[in-house]
Amino acid sequence: MQPEPEPGGYAAEAGARERDEQQRALADGVAEKVSRLVLDVDGVYRLSGKAPPGLSKKQKERRPRKGVRVAVKENTILINIQIIVRFGRPIPDIARRIQNKTRDFISSEYRDYQLVAVNVRVDGVEFDQGSEGGHIPRETARSQGIGH
To answer: Around 23, how many Cα atoms within 13 Å sit in the side-chain half-sphere?
Structure first.
């Protein structure tokens, strides 16, 4: 004999699943829009990082936001951004502009949500066209004093 389901158990479980799906859809939409904002900031060469796990190859190709991760929980939003910067640009200024643009966007478009943080991580430095080299990983740039 199977145990009796708790009153509201199935409905609560379905409601939690629906809420999770809504939060995931919101996070995807925010990440897509924030990725465009980031790419418009002077000094940003490109987004960095890997696409979220569990995506098909076709989904990964469609999503230019691989360097933007958004977590939505209840009425809060947390954003992590990974970028490659252009050589010679002031990294703290770039990060600050990204944070400010993202904060302004969230406060104007998602008023019902509180922005917890906008974390910007620089994964490397890209030299402009025509110069020797190319992308320098963050660890190498740090050890050589580039970008500080």
So the answer is: 17
Each residue of 47-58: b (16+ CB within 10 Å) or e? bbbebeeeeeee
First to last CA, the chain: 68
At residue 3, does pLDDT exceed 60?
no
111 — pLDDT class (breaks 50, 70, 90)? very high
Higher-confidence residue of 53 and 101: namely: 101
Tell me the two tokens of residue 93: 């200024």
Determine what percent of the chain is predicted with pLDDT higher than 70: 65
SS3 of 69, please?
A: strand
* Residue 118 exposed, middle or buried by CB count within 10 Å (0-12, 13-18, 19+): buried
Are the CB atoms for 95 and 106 separated by under 8 Å?
no
Q: Average pLDDT in the 35-41 region?
A: 96
Residue ranges of domains in the chain, CATH in brackets: 9-144 (3.30.70.1350)
* Cβ neighbours, 10 Å, residue 115: 16
